[in-house]
Amino acid sequence: MNLAPIDLLVIGFYLLATLFIGFWVSRRASRNIQSYFLGGNKLPWYYLGLSNASGQFDISGTMWMVYLLFIYGLKSVYIPWLWPAFNQIFLMVFLSLWLRRSGVMTGAAWIRFRFGEGRGAELSHLIIVAFALLVVLGYLAYGFVGIGKFAAAFMPWQLAADPHTNEICYGLILTAITAVYVVKGGMFSVVLTEVMQFVVMTIACIAIGLIAMVQVSPEMLEAAVPAGWYSMGVGHTLDLDWSGILESANQRIIDDGWSFFSVFFVLVLLKGILQSMAGPAPNYDMQRILSARTPVEAAKMSWLVNLVLLFPRYMMITGLTILALVFFTDDLRAMGGDVDFEQILPFALANYVPQGLLGLVIAGLLATFMSTFAATTNSAPAYVVNDVYKRYFNPNGSEKTYMRMSYMVSILFVVLGTGIGLFAPSLNDIILWIVSALYGGYTAANILKWYWWRMNGFGYFYGMLAGLVAAVPLMFTDLSPLYAFPWLFALCVAASVAGSLLTRPDDMETLKAFYFKTRPWGFWAPVHRALQEEHPGLEANRDCARDLTNCAVGILWHTALTAAPIFLVIRHWPEFSIAMVVIVAASLFLWRNWYRHLRNDPDAAENEDGGVANAGSGGQRSAIAN
User: Fold this and answer.
1) Among 504, 398, 393, which residue's Cα sits nearest to residue 121?
2) C-alpha separations of 258 from 37, 96, 241, 320, 594 in Å
3) Crossing angle of helices 544-569/295-327, nearest 10°?
4) Which segments in the chain show pLDDT lower than 50?
5) pTM (2 decimals)?
């Protein structure tokens, strides 16, 4: 790709701006670890929402989603449920409220809040730290692979003769630049740079979508795709045959193992619901929730992520995909069995984005890497420093000591994640292992911790341990992590339940403090009865049916937000209109049945119009929580 001087100038200016912000806010971020990891809980929810959306808008995921839309057509809107993509719906409806009410700094600290300080809680604390750090390494490796492929395709300088080595060199350079502003500025730096990155990315997304609409007519696209490419229907089989167009696409469908699409659909929906109900993994998403000023702001932040992320991102994904379908298929066909679908994105940029705008688009795509890498890197020292070093080795250290340790941990994890990325086979392999195997082993224990009072620290530890032990070998086998999920989930449920019932329950005072402050629904009757002896008027959470209804409508809303920009860019106006009607109708429903019922304090009374009469923390609640 030959970049014009104006493009290189835009890219250079952007990289310098991110570094400047990192150093500019470093003084504020380094006041104490609360400021470094959570921004002092002073960042507005809309900044956190834009930051979280930017953190999820990564270059590796974008390359993967372009590949999915290229091969699977409109049915690809369901495939990101592997993450699951709609987990933000469950967060916005109830889980962000419950999580933020804890007032803790990390997911590991939340485990102590839930299980107390006994032996089981200690084991649970250690296992969640280990899981969180494994997730960090997985995401850092995933980001490194994606940015290396992307940068090597568009940068004008050849740093190595071998293409793979060239990708590694660029990956190392961009990783180093990103690490500098993250390590220096902490959460303040991450959020402020990601807000800037989100603005750049949104402009880039809209521009690519419009370029594709001008370049590719509906008739041109119709001639380039197989029958069934436009269908969102879920049949027993995929019903997509690329014969005569791109034979290698048929082989990729076989390799992915999703030909029996009804089975795949049921599995990803079930897996997605279960993983969403387990709550966020201890990563950058959880850190944003814990950084919010109040529980209600945490819920609104999770709502905003869906709204601002999906539409512009899928305009870009669709634009790049249809440009490649019409103009790049011959090149892919010429690659034969060695076809690399991850080259679709850089090809479309190289050939169909004009000078000047190309620099902005590339800066936006660099932002997608940097934002995700930054958010992930920031979560590692939060666990190592706060939950290991401070807790076990130096509980009385100075803030400067903790800050220096945070810098060292961030650098260490960048190096380790990059090292793993050097040996990663492909983006698809990394993604499937993270979302199906690693998160699959996380699901069972983390569902039970919210909804079952008898789940204790030992049960959590054994459930998580079973998941980790079973997940790691799946990286080295040909067994699909998705199809292994039901067995993995069953194993972890058995380990969690057995570990809980064969050991003593957690201390009732710990359970009462957790329940009173968080107020989850589920199987908490014994704890509720114990609290009623002290607080006779205490009401249980009876919002389960309403919350789950809102989640079901939210998934429909989320799917329509995904499909609408695809129909817009390919100019299928009837389907676009239907998607917009669904978005509006679901939004009105959620406004009335979810938004109007939000409250910070679980004991706050609601006004007739759905407002909150008392959104602060009551003295009664504070007393028992402390």
Assistant:
1) 504
2) 40, 33, 13, 23, 35
3) 30
4) 29-30, 32-40, 185-187, 607-626
5) 0.84
Instruction: Characterise 141 by phi-psi region: left (phi > 0), alpha (psi -120 to 50), beta (else).
Output: alpha
All residues at 6 or more sequence positions from 247 whose CB lies less than 8 Å from its CB, including other chains: 333
Instruction: Kindly tell me the burial class for residue 357, based on how many C-beta atoms sit within 10 Å of its own C-beta (0-12, 13-18, 19 or more).
Output: middle
Distances (CA, A) of 196 to 21, 82, 182, 227, 313: 10, 29, 15, 41, 16
| Tally of CA atoms within 13 A in the half-sphere of 350 that contains its CB | 17
The total number of residues written for the chain in this structure: 626
Neighbours of 356 (CB within 10 A): 13
Query: In terms of C-beta distances under 8 Å and separation of at least 24 residues, what long-range contacts does 170-175 make, across chains too?
Result: 171/144, 171/145, 171/147, 171/418, 171/421, 172/418, 174/147, 174/366, 174/369, 174/370, 175/144, 175/147, 175/373, 175/414, 175/418
Q: How far apart (Å, rounded) are the C-alpha atoms in residues 419 and 414?
A: 8
CA distance 611 to 203: 36
Q: What are the tens digits of pLDDT across the range 575-602? A: 999 999 999 999 999 999 999 999 998 8
User: What's the CA gap between 292 and 39, in Å, rounded?
Assistant: 9
pLDDT of 130: 84
Q: Please give the structure tokens belonging to residue 494.
A: 């058995």
